[in-house]
Hints:
- The protein is an alpha/beta fold.
- It contains 14 helices and 12 strands.
Amino acid sequence: MIFFDNAATTRPYTEVLRTYQEVAEKIFGNPSSLHRLGSQSTRILEASRKQIADLIEVSSDEIFFTSGGTEADNWAIKGIAFEKRQYGKHILVSAIEHPAVKASAKWLTKQGFEVDEIPVTKEGFVDVEAFKQLLRQDTILVSVMAVNNEIGSVQPLEAIATVLKDKPTVSFHVDAVQAIGKIKVEDFLLDRVDFASFSSHKFHGVRGVGFLYKKAGKKISPLLSGGGQESDLRSTTENLAGIAATAKALRLTLDKAEVAHHKMAKMKQVILSELEQRDDILIFSGTERFTPNIITFGIKGVRGEVVVHAFEEHDIFISTTSACSSKAGSPAGTLIAMGIPVKDAQTAVRISLDDDNDMGQVEQFLTIFKQIYDKTKKVRR
């Protein structure tokens, strides 16, 4: 089996699963309980929080655990909006955000907020000049992802942060779900960033765990009320085993990030070089200002899902676009926002590499690609 769908999810590291099992079996007390087992769980919880904070160079009291990236995004968008609504009701999100952000923003319009989308260039980068024009006196929130999940474009966060430098009343949220291990932490967790969302299973952790970075002093309304966990901002009993596993996964991923980056970049270049030699191939992902792990392309005239299933017959797993929307059968929202014609966007498939992959798998992928490409000759326009 060749798994080239790592932007959808990654295989948990063996060490991560070992940590999960050990904590689940031995440290099973509720961290909110007063007895010894509860105190033991609290120590593991806070040690994991500190390890995560240290790894991304923030303070422990700035890390809040969630059930994943979707919850972290929902909490950030809705929680900031309701916390700051007395100061304004205007929100800006980029046109290529993950559905967790865009759907949350759309929901807010039904609650009386006004949302504008920041357009992107034809290459898939937020248009900073257009962003400047969209900012208003009553803007309270700007949300822009660090790395686009569909094509891998690294967004100009530093330029956006510069625009917001003299606008302290505007909260800046970054969806960093696809960033860990792909770009340097300091390149997306900038001083001007107030909130950032993360998801464990994107960096070899387990599903159902994520966290939100909230800069000290910044306020956010809770989505969940109840037992008062997470400093009374996110009530529900913490997934202790998953959180401990997340801390382990983050350390292992960042420890090998530089080596993994070079490895993925080489594999990506080999695949791109082959694609570029073929007629009727549309390439939507570049190399400059793109992550080393994502390649999005299409075979003209062939729908993406057809190509996905053709590879699956050879035990090679890729995807159309975002895993969260691929089953809907709609073209990649990012490509449409870039101005790509619908008929071309519908051909898009995404390869997403990982350090787990190797050049032998790339060679096998390309062998099968050539077979599939040749078989599509009659339907290519």
